[in-house]
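Q: Got a minute? One more chain.
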Amino acid sequence: PGNYRTQLWDKQSESFLPSTPGLGMHVEVKDPDSKVVLSRQYGSEGRFTFTSHTPGEHQICLHSNSTRMALFAGGKLRVHLDIQVGEHTNNYPEIAAKDKLTELQLRARQLLDQVEQIQKEQNYQRVRRGL
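A: Always. Here it is, folded:
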């Protein structure tokens, strides 16, 4: 998952201020093979998630579709981006509530996620070493 929020430059105060909700942001994520795994429109702040099955470097591109606001702000837009990676990003209590899982089913889901994460990390290491 990734969280972001934007700020626009305010000429009067000469500082960055929180963006208005009307600002549109487009988020696009590409995997190492340049395949688009996420392409979606959001607001001035948002949360996005994506799952990739390809190990390696991913590209995350955020751009504003609101040229009027960017011009109004003197063309200055600041983006605060927080990205979380790996198995620890899953909110298991939320998953259990949403999917109505028993404690045993939830534990099985956690273990399967851990195995999948280990496999991804091993694949990533193989790619890095060129094996």
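A: The longest helix spans residues 103-129.
Q: Perfect, thanks.
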